[in-house]
Specification:
Structural class: alpha+beta
Order of helices and strands: EHEEEHE
Shape: globular
Helix content: 10-25%
Radius of gyration: 13 Å
Low-confidence stretches: none
Number of strands: 5
Bound molecules: zinc ion
Number of domains: 1
Distance between the termini: 26 Å
Mean pLDDT: 96
Largest sheet: 5 strands, mixed
Strand content: 15-25%
């Protein structure tokens, strides 16, 4: 099985641009995880309203410099792939995974 794409400002300075494009391309079939800790994740659909504001909708940073990928975004078109990834991440740290589905998307 393929690995999900991990987009994070700390890994790549253009992560937000990539994430923005990915969300546009996968409006109907994209999923991403937002980590709350090394073993807790929230599962969102690509179009989740949590990331919607006048700046991020255009793929640019907020005036205070905050970007969508300041927190890691783990992206895939397969929920199963994301669930497997989250399970492995938690297991690496000897923890049980906590995966919640966002209620707003
Ligand atoms: Zn959501």
């Amino acid at each position: 099985m393929a690995e999900p794409d991990i987009l994070h400002d700390k890994i790549a300075p253009n992560a937000q641009t990539k994430f923005h494009k990915w969300r546009q391309q996968h409006r109907s079939d994209g999923w991403y995880l937002n980590p709350k800790s090394s073993s807790e994740f929230k599962l969102h659909s690509a179009t989740c309203p949590h990331l919607s504001n006048q700046y991020w909708d255009q793929g640019v940073k907020k005036p205070d410099g905050k970007s969508m990928t300041g927190t890691k975004k783990i992206c895939s078109t397969s929920r199963q792939e994301l669930e497997n990834w989250a399970f492995k991440e938690a297991a690496k740290r000897g923890k049980e995974v906590k995966l919640e589905r966002c209620l707003d998307c």
